[in-house]
Write a structure and sequence with these properties.
Blueprint: H1 4-9, E1 17-20, E2 24-28, E3 36-42, H2 55-71, E4 79-82, E5 98-102
Antiparallel strand pairs: 1-2, 2-3, 3-5, 4-5
The structure holds guanosine-5'-monophosphate and zinc ion (ZN).
Guanosine-5'-monophosphate binds near residues 15 and 93.
Length: about 110
């Protein structure tokens, strides 16, 4: 298995895991872009949103990100959930992941 995030799911490489259920895992981004920067991933390997065939998987990732936002204490202040898809959007790890960003004011539009 060559996928970095699958290795994190399998505990083959360490990560700061903060939440987990049967379908999803949440861990802190190694290079945080905000005071709270958590990656929420499905346990099933899907390379990007383009290959996501089961919409329920996306719903579970989104609901899990919402729950982690509550857990991190940023739900009321506000937070952003971002899915970078392919090169122009800056996707570098090809295991679908949602960035949960919060804890600071965020500009719009994103860069
Ligand atoms: P992307 O650019 O694909 O949307 O996001 C990939 C994210 O994964 C980046 O924000 C990057 O900092 C993070 N990342 C890359 N390698 C690791 C790692 O080994 N551990 C953790 N926790 N995050 C990683
Ligand atoms: Zn994977």
């Amino acid at each position: 298995m060559s996928c970095l995030f699958c290795k994190i799911i399998a505990r083959e490489i360490p990560a700061a895991i903060i939440a987990e259920d049967a379908h999803c895992l949440a861990f802190r981004d190694i290079n945080p872009q905000a005071p709270t920067h958590v990656l929420v991933i499905p346990k099933e390997h899907v390379p990007s949103l383009n290959q996501m065939t089961d919409p329920a998987l996306g719903g579970r990732v989104l609901a899990f990100a919402r729950d982690v936002a509550k857990q991190e204490g940023i739900a009321e202040r506000g937070y952003r959930v971002v899915l970078n898809t392919n090169a122009e959007a800056g996707q570098t790890v090809f295991h679908l992941h949602a960035h949960l960003l919060g804890g600071r004011e965020q500009g719009w539009p994103p860069g």
